[in-house]
Amino acid sequence: MFLLACPHCGPRSVDEFKYQGEVTRRPPERPTLRELTDYVYFRDNVAGVQREWWYHGTGCGLWFVAERDTRTNEVLRTEIPEPSRGRTPAPVEAAVPDTPAV
Ligand SMILES: [Zn+2]
Prior knowledge:
The chain is mainly β. The chain contains one helix and six strands. The site of zinc ion has 7 residues, from loops.
């Protein structure tokens, strides 16, 4: 078990959240079949830091993005992404204390 910092509620046990998968990149407006297949079915499955969607299901109900090291479960930061395309969301530094790897 590890702590995850909800940008709204602060650090909470990961049991309060639901993992919703890697952050993916949308294909172009007119994707090829290969680009569309990659987008729908394939994930990078990184052994290291990856950006992920999380949902605070038993808390405030916020959807947010976390950067987590999949090898250690260390959460580097969390942020609320902006809905518009082509803009970089402003990060919200997570105040998560060091937690032991599970
Ligand atoms: Zn929350």
